[in-house]
Design a protein that fits this description.
eight-stranded parallel beta sheet, binds alpha-D-galactopyranose, 39 strands, Immunoglobulin-like, TIM Barrel, globular
């Protein structure tokens, strides 16, 4: 799992110090928990009912709170991902976001809650034990902000922690022991949503803490959406359907591909626990914050929607690009998230990083996400039958990012760009015939090109439609100076159902082209029998590569093709260090220091071009000594799509271990580090002395 911030580490230290103090006072263990819990002004807590949604059968509105709230996943904004506690989090920001919700059509699209996260209060309560809004950030108080937001037909959310203090280093007052008074104050201000965090919880049982606030909110009589934020630590999906409307399932998201991916993978298996009024919450959106590409942000938004996740915008919309508005404002994707049936999509397959996730919709259609986790374009396929649709002659297949409809005879497939998601809605609606046929446009062979040397690639257009694709014509283009030539026919008069047009191409990068990634575009145009034009475009990333020299090479001296890293960049010949580039220390495993190698952080993958000319990769591997003894990782060596070697789970306690893989015939070798399956942080992993023999 990605590295947690030092703030998080501090939070843990604080927790154990408190435990030590209670211990010294003879109040350790459950007694201590009760002693702290007893300070609650709720005068005791009710039991958690067992009628949750663990079996997926719970009814609607399970939070046992006033109002039929969150019957679809909450949508809105929260400042945390864009501002943390910085000064720009203030009244002007909150009002600005509310204004933009209206002006940009986001309110119309369903976004409703404008939520304040940590740091809105002063560090001390007033003489009456009441919370005090920070007068610098909120000079008019919270009620005034709520009034402003309400006047626009929107709702206001607030934040506190089920602990003695919130999570920020500064430590704002938490609600543990103040549940009734704080809930009353929120209700009096006109708050409509509470995010209730988990920091400084003094070891008090989570169910007790979260039920105490539920009951306090209930006692106010005001309908308030209740968002449980205990990071999935106590499996809230098993007990919280009757407690809150949503519960975080994971640690905090950050604005990186690997964080988003790891959170998605933790949340996907929990599908059966979600339903109207009780949702899995894989944390707020990072779309627009700058750490991912727009392709990756579309994946983020597509996958959160098919997971029926809350859609809380996490970027400062006052600075957002048109692309950000286009992504978060895509009403066809939002409709997948907000479908009233309230199902979270199920994973149908995920082999080789090619994910198929399908979500049953109220109208009987299925939303289908074809998500490509890998760094190269992949063909991802399923069928109308496999996603649960009834047998039919044809189906309407709607592409929710292209906003176009096609017909399919039953095949649902696409070649999906690296890190991309094709999001479809497929219906057996009997109206398929009016749409052009869907085609899949793909490429056989990876576009790995040595400068000045023609590479041979084959494109393939397959008609998935019930109707024929006519006047089919494929083109392949690249950057200026690249020569791309068809060496077999690139047109076909008509392609019947399931038939393909394959075209052979030679692709030559200019002599002297620098190694690296280049954009190519494959495109096919065609007509439906009625004459309507349609096309399919596949953006591709070609790599100009250099074959490794014959003999033994130190891997850290070779140019890599691509890297993915859980925290900061991959380092050459030093450990991972912290988040900045070049901040590592000498690679050290179990006291042994290594001069050469790679310092990475799980989840990580580093790819090298080997051009089918190498035989073996060997290394010494282990968790770097630089972090406290928490890291747990596994090392894997992949030869093209095949795992060629792996270690078991290694920890800081282990000495460097040898790993060796036969990579003969592989075009690409991938060095992978996983988080060892424990979802823990500080996974600083070293590939010491990796040597490639060619
Ligand atoms: C925790 C939560 C985050 C955010 C911060 C605020 O880390 O999980 O979502 O609210 O606290 O300090």
């Amino acid at each position: 799992m990605r590295h947690l911030t030092s703030r998080t580490t501090r939070r843990r230290v604080v927790g154990s110090l408190t435990a030590a103090l209670l211990c010294a006072a003879g109040l350790a263990g459950p007694a201590a928990a009760q002693a702290t819990g007893g300070a609650s002004d709720t005068g005791g807590t009710s039991d958690v009912s067992d009628t949750g949604s663990a079996n997926g059968t719970a009814g609607t509105g399970g939070a046992n709170l006033p109002g039929d709230l969150a019957l679809t996943p909450p949508m809105g904004f929260n400042n945390w991902n864009s501002t943390h506690c910085r000064a720009e989090f203030d009244e002007a920001m909150v009002k600005g976001i509310a204004d933009l919700f209206v002006e940009k059509g986001l309110k119309e699209a369903g976004y409703q809650y404008v939520n304040l996260d940590d740091c809105w209060a002063l560090p001390e309560r007033d003489a009456n034990g009441k919370l005090v809004p920070d007068p610098k950030r909120f000079p008019g108080g919270i009620k005034a902000v709520a009034d402003y937001v309400h006047a626009k037909g929107l709702k206001l959310g607030i934040y506190t922690s089920a602990g003695t203090k919130t999570c920020s280093d500064i430590g704002f007052p938490g609600a543990l022991g103040h549940e009734v008074s704080d809930a009353r104050q929120f209700a009096d201000w006109g708050v409509d949503y509470l995010k209730y965090d988990n920091c400084n919880n003094q070891g008090v049982d989570a169910k007790k803490r979260y039920v105490a606030m539920r009951d306090a909110l209930k006692a106010t009589g005001r309908p308030i959406v209740y968002s449980i934020c205990e990071w999935g630590e106590n499996k809230p999906w098993e007990w919280a359907a009757d407690v809150g409307h949503l519960w975080r399932t994971t640690g905090d998201i950050s604005d990186t591909w690997s964080s988003m991916l790891s959170i998605m993978k933790q949340n996907l298996p929990l599908a059966k626990h979600a339903g109207p009024g009780h949702w899995n919450d894989p944390d707020m959106l990072e779309v627009g914050n700058g750490g991912m590409t727009d392709t990756e942000y579309r994946t983020h938004f597509s996958m959160w929607s098919i997971m029926a996740a809350p859609l809380l915008i996490g970027s400062d919309l006052r600075k957002a690009t048109p692309e950000t508005f286009e992504i978060i404002g895509n009403e066809e994707v939002i409709a997948v998230d907000q479908d009233p049936l309230g199902k979270q999509g199920d994973v149908l397959s995920s082999e080789g990083g090619r994910w198929v996730v399908a979500k049953e919709m109220k109208d009987g259609s299925r939303a289908v996400a074809l998500f490509n986790e890998t760094g190269t374009a992949q063909s991802i396929a399923t069928t109308a039958k496999a996603v649960g649709l009834p047998a039919a002659d044809g189906y309407t297949l709607r592409d929710l990012w292209k906003h176009k409809s096609y017909n399919t005879a039953g095949g649902i497939s696409a070649t999906v760009p690296a890190h991309g998601t094709v999001l479809l809605r497929v219906s057996a609606d009997g109206k398929w015939a009016k749409n052009p046929p869907a085609v899949e446009l793909g490429l056989e062979g990876a576009p790995l090109v040595e400068a000045g040397k023609p590479a041979r690639l084959t494109s393939k257009v397959t008609n998935l439609g019930r109707t024929p694709a006519q006047k089919v014509s494929t083109t392949f283009t690249g950057p200026s100076g690249w020569r791309i030539k068809a060496t077999s026919p690139s047109t076909a008069a008509s392609l019947p159902t399931d038939k393909s047009l394959s075209t052979k191409w030679t692709v030559t990068a200019p002599r002297g082209a620098a190694p690296g990634a280049y954009d190519l575009t494959l495109k096919t145009g065609y007509r439906s029998p009625g004459g309507a034009r349609a096309d399919s475009v596949l953006p591709l990333t070609a790599h100009v590569v250099v074959a490794p020299p014959a003999g033994n090479s130190a891997v850290s001296d070779l140019p890599w093709m691509s890297t993915v890293n859980g925290w900061g960049p991959v380092e050459k010949d030093t450990s991972n260090g912290e988040s900045a580039a070049g901040d590592g220390k000498p690679l050290t495993i179990g006291g042994a220091v290594f001069a050469k190698g790679l310092g990475v952080h799980a989840d990580s993958a580093v790819e090298y071009y080997t051009g089918a000319s190498c035989e073996k990769l060997t290394a010494r591997v282990g968790v770097d000594d630089e972090k406290d003894p928490k890291g747990t990782v596994t090392f894997e060596i992949w030869a093209d799509g095949k795992k060629a070697a792996s270690t078991g789970v290694l920890t800081n306690a282990d000495a460097a271990q040898g790993i060796s893989a036969d990579v003969s015939g592989a075009q690409v070798v991938r060095l992978v580090v996983t988080d060892g399956g424990d979802g823990r942080d500080s996974d600083h992993a070293d590939w010491a002395e990796p040597v490639l023999s060619c």
